[in-house]
Design brief:
It holds the Pfam family Gelsolin. This is Gelsolin. One of its GO terms (molecular function) is actin filament binding. It is a single chain. It is built from seven helices and 18 strands. With 394 residues, the protein is α+β, with helices and mostly antiparallel strands. The chain has three domains: 1-20 and 293-394, Severin; 39-176, Severin (3-Layer(aba) Sandwich); 181-271, Severin (3-Layer(aba) Sandwich). The chain has an eleven-stranded mixed beta sheet, with helices on both faces. A seven-stranded mixed beta sheet has the order 4-8-10-9-11-12-13, with helices on one face. Strand 17 (340-345), helix 6 and strand 18 form a beta-alpha-beta unit.
């Protein structure tokens, strides 16, 4: 989109017409904080005071702790909240001075219900209030995980099914009788996701799901097969071995590993409905279930949301190299880093600026097709974590 179109050219808004006068007011914060103090999930004695990783799933409008042995495992029919608290060296502080920073991710499965997604979003804001507004909030979509989220779970596993919803009933894989399960294993393409960022995604158990660039694990109950595409990487093979090990911990079954280059690999293709297909003469390609943002041709852009002139305006500030000095604590800024959308709220930003950032960021994503799949995160001045400054300075 040319720089003079869409939201790049300054636009004017009258925030009083949007019925958001109380948003970010002291009344608004007090109400949300009082609500947060009654939420059992946040009041476990550790949230807000200790470093750590915490995961909750939304179940019937409630925030339920996710078992630690399932961290990194998500169901596409659910919504989750993830809190990461860590101590980092304070930017601009003295030697060794540290601050506890928080990142909250609300993860929305591709088949989560509207009520679950809405509860996750609301509870994310509530958790931020519990942390006195010190957290960075991230919206994560199953279809396009950010690099920072993938770094949290180098063994990210996405399965079908979901918990019972307030409006919709979806059975989890654990509750349902056994059916063939086909897992696709592939590497996150972004270097910023980490060297070991490998994803495991359950796909339709059919030969049409196979791709020669990845590794697949077929669990048919009485036996586990591993199908290695002829172009798969050693890391994907290693990850498949971990997945198989996890599966065989609960049950003792035979495991057989076959390469696409072997004639015998036809037995897996036949089992998946591809009778008559020769694995040595067929090119296997299948679209990946996750779309990754391509930032190779996208330049970083910084926009300012300000009412310094009496009217709320949103306009382009800078393209290309962006640094800490390009941010002004009296306004709100939107950073399109190429890999994600960041909203930075200055300490001195006005009530109108703070109230309108949601609407402006939504409009920005809606009007820029190449940004539609990007994660959206919000951070406040002074509470920035590593992921934000990495996005700014990368």
């Amino acid at each position: 989109m040319p720089p003079h179109e869409g939201l790049v050219h300054p636009k004017e808004y009258d925030w009083r017409d949007s019925n958001v006068e109380l948003i970010n007011s002291s009344v608004d914060h007090n109400v949300k904080y009082q609500s947060a103090t009654t939420e059992p999930a946040w009041n476990n004695g550790f949230i807000g005071s200790d470093s750590g990783l915490y995961v909750w799933r939304i179940e019937d409008f409630e925030v339920i702790p996710w078992p630690k042995d399932k961290y990194g495992q998500f169901h596409e029919g659910d919504s989750y909240i993830i809190l990461v608290s860590e101590k980092i060296k304070k930017r601009g502080g003295g030697d060794g001075e540290e601050v506890l920073v928080h990142d909250i991710y609300f993860w929305l499965g591709s088949h989560t219900t509207q009520d679950e997604a809405g509860t996750a979003a609301y509870k994310t804001v509530e958790l931020d209030e519990f942390l006195h507004g010190a957290a960075t909030q991230h919206r994560e979509l199953q279809s396009s995980p950010s690099a920072s989220f993938s770094r949290l779970f180098p063994r990210l596993k996405i399965l079908r099914g979901g918990v019972r919803s307030g409006f919709t009933h979806v059975e989890t894989n654990e509750e349902a009788p056994h059916i063939d399960t086909l897992l696709r294993i592939f590497k996150h393409p972004s270097p910023s996701a980490g060297r070991d960022a490998i994803l495991v995604h359950e796909v339709e158990p059919t030969w049409k799901s196979l791709d020669e660039g990845d590794v697949f694990v077929l669990d048919r109950g009485d036996k586990i097969w591993v199908w290695q595409g002829k172009k798969c990487s050693p890391m994907e093979k290693a990850k498949a071995a971990q997945v198989v090990n996890d599966l065989t911990l609960a049950k003792h079954v035979d495991v057989e590993v076959l390469s696409q280059a072997e004639t015998k690999s036809k037995v897996i293709i036949d089992y998946l409905g591809g009778e008559g297909i020769n694995p040595l003469e067929t090119t296997f390609t299948a679209e990946r279930p996750i779309a990754f943002a391509d930032s190779t041709n996208r330049e970083k852009k910084l926009f300012r949301l300000s009412d310094a002139n009496g009217q709320l305006s949103f306009g382009l500030v800078k393209e290309g190299n962006i640094g800490e000095n390009d941010f002004d604590g009296n306004d709100v800024f939107l950073l399109d880093s190429g890999n994600g959308i960041w909203v930075w709220e200055g300490k001195g930003a006005s009530k109108a600026e703070k109230a309108m950032w949601i609407k402006v960021s939504q409009q920005y994503v809606a009007q820029h097709e190449d940004a539609a799949s990007l994660s959206v995160a919000k951070v406040r001045e002074g509470n920035e974590g590593r992921s934000f400054w990495t996005a700014v300075e990368a």
